[in-house]
Amino acid sequence: MDSPQQLAVDAPRVWDRPAVTVPAMAVLALIGGRLPSFSTAANVYVIVIGGALLWLGLGNRVPRRAAGGRLRTPALWWLVPALLFGVLEAATFIFGTKDGFPTFSRLSDPLLEDPMIRSAAYFGWLAAFWGMVRR
Q1: Dihedral angle at the C-alpha atoms of 47, 94, 113, 48, nearest 10 degrees?
Q2: What is the pLDDT of residue 124?
Q3: What is the rounded (10 degree) CA torsion for 133, 103, 86, 112?
Q4: How far, in Å, CA of 107 to CA of 123, rounded?
Q5: So what's the pLDDT on residue 106?
Q6: Using only C-alpha atoms, what is the Rg of the chain?
Q7: By the 8 A CB rule, do 21 and 27 touch?
Q8: Distance between CA 118 and CA 133 in Å, rounded?
Q9: Please, which contacts does 54-57 make with residues 24 or more away whose CB atoms are closer than 8 Å?
Q10: Is the separation of the CB atoms in 129 and 53 below 8 Å?
Q11: What percent of the chain has pLDDT over 90?
Q12: Helix, strand or coil for residue 131?
């Protein structure tokens, strides 16, 4: 009689669990939200954090999750607003804002003056980037 098969499953690393990564991202977001907008410190902070996530994503240091299936045609329609946003933002940036056509970035500046809203934006950026690292 054959021996029963053993099923081995790798346990996730302690630092890779949501109970660890979400609070870590929250702390990083709170630090980033306290930095003044467009300051040297804020730019260096974004480059360092983004570079670290890029380094993690390009290497085999983080276990990957299974990728989802292919996008269906109705889901692709969600790309139209994103592409339109990108085209309008690029056009107003290239042609200048002196004619009364502000970029979306300029329109969001009053919102991002509040450190808590800026921290929430940092958290969204970190969560989206972490999701890309895991794929």
Answers
A1: 0
A2: 93
A3: 20
A4: 20
A5: 73
A6: 20
A7: no
A8: 22
A9: 56/133, 57/132, 57/133
A10: yes
A11: 27
A12: helix
Give pLDDT < 50 ranges for the chain. none
Round to whole Å and give the CA distance between 19 and 14. Answer: 9
First to last CA, the chain: 42
Q: Which residues fall within 8 angstroms of residue 34, CB to CB, at 6 or more apart? A: 115, 119
Contact 26, 123 (CB under 8 A): yes
Query: Residue type at 25?
Result: M
Q: Name the one residue in this structure whose structure tokens are 């929430």.
A: 120
Q: How far apart are CA 112 and CA 100, in angstroms?
A: 21
Entry pTM: 0.67
